[in-house]
């Protein structure tokens, strides 16, 4: 009988769920809508019901279920499984661990979604084989996960890994959603790149693919920038240089501080592949400490949208191991 | 019979040594000259002889000696105790652990001096009670130690904690000893502050204490800058603003990445006390993530020059505990 780990990746639009075995192989993978009505009060119940239906459908025995690992889009107290807030879901303080454990009767581990994606990449993705790595997720915003010695660095108040809020524009930076100015997120996330592109086409007098597209659609995405770059557009090249310079110095400084084995770049923007990685490596090498240059590697994430559910499964597994060890120890104690 | 831990802080001019008990109390503390002649070949032998004399003098029994913990001014392979290089000592690759263990017959732990100072501050200084902290040493250069979950983060090639080489001046920065431009060390170390001060007095047309002093002595130290600030000198205030802005953004970014409980500021420059800490806190708060602002504290180091020997003793102690545990386990194995 296979043990089953349940990974859940709770997002603002949809929630990804998966049953995964202890070797990290998918047994089943599905997706449900995230119902945000009434301050998100149906979200957890929908997850519980969906898991329960799938358990019945697949004829999984209760004893097979090891635990649930869930990533949520907000700050979390990892010890207690309390979610402080998820603006995207309409949640205030929510006892995610307590509620899910009560409803399912199995152990639940809760962490921030960027941390869970990082641990997923460590287990089965680009970070496989290392225990010291950073994961940066370049999506609408920028998330980050710091893994040292195989453990997520949560920080004293759960703000570990807030890579998007590293300041990389010292003067005259854009204002960030967090209230500060010049955060990495304002220039190197999908929305940051879009903003830099729009600013650039408005300023330039030169001809440019990007300018044409902007005049036609009145919008520019990060993907547009990399598409234009692919077509040899000069302005797009300058924007990508800017983006990778800001991102490069931030990652270089993380390198000088922690000298991790790998820095894994994921999220939608990382789909640009080598068009992003090549200039990024250039600036990383320029700004990081010499020893780091030859020992810390920048790599692209490999799990894509599966990183969250795989990471969730890993958390359920290690937590399950931990619980079993405690049980085993008390068993030994009872014997002696 | 008290167990004795030996802490050694190997510096470019002098070497500090101490016998310390397992509660962190000094039994004896002394200093010897660091003899750098002939590529530093006498350094380790002098340390061994000095320890051996002191053991005789204090009538310490061999069984009391738990181990030696030594900090060296260069990059170290912590696992093997191999020192890659110490430019200040004239050393190339040196088997510090192997040599010292062979000569003394007791276990030796070797680490970079900034890491050892950090662990000292964690055990008995400003970081007492926390297991997640950063230590920044503002001396002639800038050293750093990152402690996560009670362990020093060494990084994949020993470059963890190279805080001095975080880039905080993106454009037109000074060239650093490491070959890069704009490193924190070029603007916030004692020599960096001195350089900023000299540049400022050369540029300004205003009257200033600092300018007077510079014209008299043809030199300005970091201490001069804080002395002038104390006397209300406007130019000194501007220099300190600049220094703490660069240092503040670097520490703020470390905060957003790791959200440690404390960031401990040590080294000669930290003697400026609140004149440094107050503006530093201002910029730290301006640039760091909101949650970090209310949970990560900037504090001054409290151990001064003793941090190195105390940290060395701690390394000897934890390593000793580790060895004893292994011995104890094999003892149990023999019994069963």
Q: How would you briefly describe this protein structure?
A:
The structure is a homodimer of 336-residue chains. By secondary structure, the first copy, chain A, is an alpha/beta fold.
What would your notes on this structure say?
The structure is a homodimer of 336-residue chains. Helices cover 44% and strands 19% of the residues of chain A. Chain A has 336 residues and is an alpha/beta fold. Chain A folds into two domains: 4-118 and 305-335, Nucleotidyltransferase, domain 5, CATH 3.30.420.40; 128-302, 2-Layer Sandwich (Nucleotidyltransferase, domain 5). In chain A, strand 9 and strand 10 form a beta hairpin. In chain A, helix 4 (113-124) packs across helix 12, helix 8 (222-230) crosses helix 9 and helix 9 crosses helix 10 (274-287). The radius of gyration of chain A is 21 Å and the shape is globular. At the A-B interface, strand 9, helix 9 and helix 11 of A face strand 9, helix 9 and helix 11 of B.
Number of domains of chain A: 2
Major beta sheet of chain A, specifics?
5 strands, mixed
Number of helices of chain A: 12
How are helices and strands ordered from N to C of chain A?
A: EEEHHEEEHEHEEEHHHHHEHHEH
CATH top level assignment of the largest domain in chain A: Alpha Beta
Q: What topology, given as strand order, has the largest sheet of chain A?
A: 3-2-1-4-7
The pair of chains with the biggest contact is: A-B, 47 and 47 residues
Q: Strand tally of chain A, please?
A: 12
**Average pLDDT rating of chain A:** 94
Give the full name of the CATH homologous superfamily of the largest domain in chain A.
ATPase, nucleotide binding domain
Using the CA coordinates, give the radius of gyration of chain A: 21 Å
The dominant shape of chain A is globular
Low-confidence spans of chain A: pLDDT under 50, at least 5 residues? none
CATH architectural type of the largest domain in chain A: 2-Layer Sandwich
């Amino acid at each position: 009988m296979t043990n089953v780990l349940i990974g859940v990746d709770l997002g603002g639009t949809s929630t990804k769920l998966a049953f995964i075995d202890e070797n990290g192989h998918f047994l089943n993978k599905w997706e449900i809508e995230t119902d945000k009505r009434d301050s998100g009060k149906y979200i957890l119940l929908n997850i519980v019901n969906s898991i329960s239906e799938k358990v019945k459908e697949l004829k999984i025995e209760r004893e097979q279920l090891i635990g649930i690992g869930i990533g949520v889009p907000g700050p979390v107290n990892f010890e207690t499984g309390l979610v402080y807030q998820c603006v995207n879901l309409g949640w205030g303080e929510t006892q995610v661990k307590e509620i899910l454990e009560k409803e399912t009767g199995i152990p639940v581990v809760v962490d921030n979604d960027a941390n869970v994606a990082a641990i997923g990449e460590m287990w089965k993705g680009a970070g496989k084989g290392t225990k010291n790595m950073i994961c940066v997720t370049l999506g609408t915003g920028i998330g980050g996960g710091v893994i040292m010695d195989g453990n997520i660095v949560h920080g004293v108040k759960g703000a570990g890994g807030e890579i998007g809020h590293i300041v990389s524009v010292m003067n005259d930076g854009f204002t960030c959603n967090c209230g500060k100015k010049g955060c990495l997120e304002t220039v190197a996330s999908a929305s940051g790149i879009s903003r830099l592109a729009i600013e650039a086409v408005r300023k330039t007098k030169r001809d440019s693919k990007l300018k044409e597209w902007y005049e036609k659609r009145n919008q520019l995405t990060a993907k547009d920038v990399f598409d234009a770059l692919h077509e040899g557009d000069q302005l797009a090249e300058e924007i990508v240089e800017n983006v990778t310079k800001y991102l490069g110095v931030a990652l270089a400084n993380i390198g000088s501080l922690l000298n991790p084995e790998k820095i894994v770049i994921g999220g939608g923007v990382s789909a640009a592949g080598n068009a992003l990685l090549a200039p990024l490596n250039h600036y990383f090498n320029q700004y990081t400490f010499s020893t780091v240059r030859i020992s810390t590697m920048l790599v692209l994430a490999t799990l894509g949208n599966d990183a969250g559910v795989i990471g969730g499964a890993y958390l359920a597994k290690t937590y399950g191991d931990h619980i079993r060890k405690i049980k085993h120890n008390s068993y030994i104690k009872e014997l002696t």
